[in-house]
Amino acid sequence: MSAPKATIVSFRRMEDGTREDYEMLDASEREYARWLPDHVLAAIRKLDSTLVGYPVSRLEHSLQAATRALKDGADSELVVAALVHDVGDELAPYNHAAIAAGILRPYVRPEVTWIVEQHGVFQSYYYAHHSGGNRHGRDRFRDHPWYQACADFCANWDQCSFDPEYAWEPLSRFEPLVREIFSRPAHDPRFVGS
User: Fold this and answer.
1) Out of 19, 111, 117, 177, which could bridge 101 as a Cys pair, Cβ 3.0 to 4.6 Å?
2) Structural domain boundaries of the chain?
3) How far apart are CA 56 and CA 37, in angstroms?
4) pTM of the predicted model, to two decimals?
5) Which residue ranges of the chain lie beneath pLDDT 70?
């Protein structure tokens, strides 16, 4: 006996799809989204083998940043943001902040998304001048209401988290928070605002 064939849509062009096609796809996407926390955790684990040259792996850097956020009493959204802020590095090294912000956006308040989306610009304050870049690029956001929150994210959790001597928490410590955040209904106004 062979395994049952997966149900697939009847169309080859979306404009030819039927109500049944789109109902089936919606159910399939909802089922896939149930496993989003596992997909996010897998992406975080993959950071253990990226970007050589630092004294810690990207995973260890992310764990350090999340541990610092946790120890500073940050809420669960900011702790998870600190954990996933560099998850886009592997596929978008020059736009990684936007990738991480896009992953978080449907599940956290706008402030957290903005901090993650801008952290690359704010982080360059610490190094851009060494290669002729503008370390003050973040100043264009000086009047933004979340400017200081992003500056603090970078100063207190991100730029200082390349220390192999720092005692960071294991990923298992953050797994319940990842599951909490990424199991929320996407775009729920209770979490992301209207």
Assistant:
1) 117
2) 34-182
3) 24
4) 0.91
5) 1-6, 50, 194
